[in-house]
Known about the structure:
mainly alpha; Rossmann fold; Tyrosyl-Transfer RNA Synthetase; 2 domains; two-stranded parallel sheet; two-stranded parallel ribbon; binds iron/sulfur cluster
Amino acid sequence: xxxxxxxxxxxxxxxxxxxxxxxxxxxxxxxxxxxxxxxxxxxxxxxxxxxxxxxxxxxxxxxxxxxxxxxxxxxxxxxxxxxxxxxxxxxxxxxxxxxxxxxxxxxxxxxxxxxxxxxxxxxxxxxxxxxxxxxxxxxxxxxxxxxxxxxxxxxxxxxxxxxxxxxxxxxxxxxxxxxxxxxxxxxxxxxxxxxxxxxxxxxxxxxxxxxxxxxxxxxxxxxxxxxxxxxxxxxxxxxxxxxxxxxxxxxxxxxxxxxxxxxxxxxxxxxxxxxxxxxxxxxxxxxxxxxxxxxxxxxxxxxxxxxxxxxxxxxxxxxxxx
Length: 322
Ligand code: SF4
């Protein structure tokens, strides 16, 4: 995940929550991708703070350093080296077709840089360096993961079977929409709920949230299936209560105001402990730095082994002899 400076509910439900679950079964790696974050405008002086806050948010949300290797991408320079080597087997046409490249090029017209274009190849390096077998992704990243698989296949076909083709695991909530009910939740669109926002701030934002547009009056029956807030209830509220909301909305027994209040309660139940843990960890920054430093050291060791093999097979590096 990129250190973008604001972690919101979309990041939590769409990604972090499933990483916490997956660490029960897998030897997990979670990477704070600061190299990727350089492809859009940023302030160098703010980057260390953003990285630290993201690490803090992961730990507060339940990422357990005993089971997950949490690290910062730039602590392992092999990511950029492998990216360069993979560039040599990646067709330009494939990168030009990526939806995210087109979207970001539109968003950042003044700075459509090579890094933005090459972004999916760096992602391929992030995964292939550690022989990742499964990668939890949201719907919008499935195309990139398919490209990673193709890059691995192309490289293996040219240099011999070595890189592992990763499989996608779609997160339980694949696409979290913002409070406008239209676009993906994002800070830049202003349609988000921050992970650390108080119940009062959340309640105030929910007051203006988009619901079923046909429900103009309190007495109008609603359609939960078209309401984004009902989808959020599905991820945050106990199932029996979700069934009651469904029935209450359809029969107009409950109004959208009541429904939003129930959502504030559900969000408080889920995010409250995260906010508390974040606050406690924030006062112990050394612990957070120790975790990411140890993660970086483990990753450098694994990456060195992978790069030794990759360089040998490609006929380059200090071990290559005529
Ligand atoms: Fe959406 Fe709830 Fe209003 Fe129904 S009652 S339209 S589910 S906010």
